[in-house]
Amino acid sequence: MDKTAIILGASGLTGSELLKILLEDESYTKVKVFGRSRLEENHPKLEQFIGDLFKLEEFSQSFKADEVFCCIGTTAKKTPDKTIYKAIDYGIPVNAASLAKLNDINFFAVVSAMGANAKSNIFYNKTKGEMEQEVLKVNIPFTYILRPSLILGKRNEKRLAESWAKTLFEELSFIFMGPLKKYRPNPAENIAQKMRQLAQNRPPSKIIFAEEINEVAELGYDN
């Protein structure tokens, strides 16, 4: 197959893992990355588009592919302004889905969060839940919303709380069995591999929970 993929958020933890995977995958002849700054990555398949993601519609002529993977996300620490926070975590994914629909792209996968709930009193969870609702309303034939638990991996910036939580989860991993398995953290590579697996197999649109994301490591990446 000669596929083209679009990645939003390729500089982040999950997006960077996904970029490596797709560049190595012979199914893809081109991987388009949209972001605010140029990546250091150099690869013959890689095509970079630099600009304001809040104005994604300006990329409409270039936003053409077989699949769109949205790995955009921020944190309250990095983005304390709630208006900007929502513009990133809600606005960019929703606009990306709308643009994908406009350009007849029939596959859209987006990383959300375990606690996503449009009715939540917690701003972060509410924002993710509202994003999910709007993405689903766009009605792209193959739409997948991934809800990971704590995402593990090496980040460029220091996140003390996440570092502490990661150590705790690793030390107490034996606890996350049976009913608690669904709360087990998700390595970023597992999320990226699950996104690729969804693109390969294209099951009916659905929400993918943390436990199912980690199954790619148990089943093997090529399943």
Automatic annotation (TrEMBL):
Boundaries of every Semialdehyde dehydrogenase NAD-binding domain copy: 4-102
Top-level taxon in the UniProt lineage: Bacteria
InterPro entries named among the record's database cross-references: NAD(P)-bd_dom (IPR016040), NAD(P)-bd_dom_sf (IPR036291), Semialdehyde_DH_NAD-bd (IPR000534)
A matching Pfam family: NAD_binding_10
Protein name as catalogued: NAD(P)H-binding protein
Origin species: Namhaeicola litoreus
